[in-house]
Hints:
Elements: H1 33-50, E1 55-56, E2 60-64, E3 73-77, E4 86-91, H2 110-114, H3 119-132, H4 136-142, H5 155-165, H6 179-182, H7 184-189, H8 197-209, E5 223-224, E6 232-237, E7 241-246, E8 257-258, H9 269-272, H10 275-282, E9 290-294, E10 299-304, E11 314-317, H11 323-343, H12 355-378, H13 400-403
Parallel strand pairs: 5-8
Antiparallel strand pairs: 1-4, 2-3, 4-7, 6-7, 9-10, 10-11
Helix pairs in contact: 1-4, 3-4, 3-8, 5-12, 11-12
Amino acid sequence: MANAATDCTTGSVETCHNDAADEHIATDGAEDLDALQDRLSQELVDWIRSTEGGYINEKVQLRRSGDNDDGPRGIFTNDVIEADEIICTIPWDIIVKPQQPEDDDEEDDEEDDYGEDDTCSTMQALYDDMKEERTPHGRYLKSMPRNFLPAWWSEAGRELLQKLLGKRLPPQGVRDHHWTKNYAGEAEDCDGDMHDELWSHAVAMVSGRADDDLLVPFYDMINHRNGEYMNTRHSIAEGRFYQLVAHRRIEAGEQLYNSYNQCTVCGGRHDEFGTPEMFFHYGFVESLPHRWFVSQVRLKFDLIESDDPGGEPQVKFMVPPSIWGVTFMEDEVRRLEQFGEDYRDDEGLAATISPFELEMIWQYHNAVLTAFRAAIQAAEDEIDESVWLCDCDWYLVRDWDKEGCNFW
């Protein structure tokens, strides 16, 4: 996560600071926010290692990225980790999770108590932890940036983002997607105070960092990236522990990454949850590779890094691009170019929209233009209308050359 409103790093769970909300983060006056978060993150690691059943591999360390160690925080290796080697084991007792009802039979097996997804109860548990600063995990999450998800943005920020998206570009619905509307039912069920800044932060933390309704210490500090960068996978032994292992051999110096949409247990997200959805639900524009999925024109492609260092990103179509799909991209490129001319140098926007929100809007604007321009060029020799002969489950195709429309 970046630590200045205009220094946003993609794919990071820490994201950018919204400086307007940092006033809610308490420090002792002698310690700046970055130093506080560095200290709290190390306290969290020490706490897990000292907890019975807790384990964090000595071959990993939490540090900042960048040549001068001044970039976003991440988990890095300091030695080779072999495939299937355990990276961390987090005891069930210290995971923030739905609380067992007081009237439950104490003799019931703890695994059965976990039950169905109850995100609301997890939000309440995190709120209580942060408010009372019960654990190093709660103290660390309390120090995290506020309002990083689009549903928490200002009305003016969401309005400008909707203008960028127009009527067809995903993700749609951002103008009306405000947390007090979309999470109102959960908040009421938990007796959360919509005007309580810490409750708002608890809802955002669970929404943006939890694995379903589990908020797992250390695991929730690992950043997202797909493709060859994804090098971890997790497993859950309900009532016992949450474990992370190496998905492949990880060389010394690599950063650990998981995936929010293409992990080994991500289910349907693998096929219809891409870069736009990542931005909408998690508040960042992911680093390459990207996945772009536009259902109304049956467009689905990945944007991947070039094999040549410094080369232009390459396009891999998951289904053949049709005339309709290419025309859609051409229209959107022209519209987005005009959007840039209209708003990029508009100094008046800063009066109602935070630097953080503006930075993220322009990051997404640039990401769409880069992806669509590359795809338009790549489609010149690949236009094929056969995708329209497919069933409505066309998007489930992962390798057209092998599957075509015959995968179901």
